[in-house]
Amino acid sequence: MLKVNNIDVFYGNIHALKDVSLEVNEGEIVTLIGANGAGKSTLLKTLSGLLKPKNGDILYLTQSIAGKQAQSIVKSGISHVPEGRRVFANMSVEENLELGAYLRNDRDGIKKDIEYIYELFPRLDERKKQLSGTLSGGEQQMLAMGRALMAKPKLLLMDEPSMGLAPLVVKKIFEIIKTVNEQGTTVLLVEQNANMALSIANRAYVLETGKIVLSGTAKELQESEQVKAAYLGGL
Ligand code: ATP
């Protein structure tokens, strides 16, 4: 479904991604784990058209999307849930969800999908008229995810959904990622919480200072001494 071939991404002189290649097959949850500053967010931003690779290519459903405009990438079925949530604080929960569908014009479909999001996240249903800026961190993460799903993505890019959330909330969010995946959405999940990410992923890549240093099935990585020492707290 997605094939990243040898991309290099720079911020001015900073070489943030170095010859990165990875693949996501339809139906999978693939996770990209790595420490602070490894380049995880940079990769997602490049996939969703916010940054342009200097070299290499990105193939999505056999089309090259490297350097394409973000809007056309969303239209082709890739949605990005950014790090730090970024909901529209002065708008209600429901208005945020409606905004997620801004490229669609099937009114009935949009209405139905808002109901689907409320089934997935009953918390949001209870708070549909509440201003999003007053939601808890976990609720904002749910809303950011719901908003991205309103675009009906085939591929969902998630940037550190666990960040700053209590363990029980993280568990809930990860259960929902799994459900969404089982219902047909492919997921590329960027995480520092390697433990949680590997527990739901099919396959994984490890990014260190801009380079992929390891890849394999989630099980292989969970058992890897290198991963255990660096990312699983020596468990
Ligand atoms: P974190 O989990 O801390 O967000 P990350 O793995 O997502 O880390 P990135 O945000 O992708 O890391 O950053 C990769 C590298 O690129 C870092 O060295 C960072 O300082 C640098 N970088 C990120 N954004 C910019 C920018 N706008 N301008 C210059 N350098 C940047």
UniProtKB/TrEMBL annotation:
Listed SMART domains: AAA (SM00382)
InterPro entries per record: AAA+_ATPase (IPR003593), ABC_branched_ATPase_LivF/BraG (IPR030660), ABC_transporter-like_ATP-bd (IPR003439), ABC_transporter-like_CS (IPR017871), BCAA_Transport_ATP-bd_LivF (IPR052156), P-loop_NTPase (IPR027417)
GO terms, biological process: L-amino acid transport
PROSITE patterns per record: ABC_TRANSPORTER_1 (PS00211), ABC_TRANSPORTER_2 (PS50893)
Keyword terms: Amino-acid transport, ATP-binding, Nucleotide-binding, Transport
Pfam family, one: ABC_tran
Coiled coil: none
One MF annotation (Gene Ontology) recorded for this entry: ATP binding
Similarity section: Belongs to the ABC transporter superfamily.
UniProt name for this protein: ABC transporter ATP-binding protein
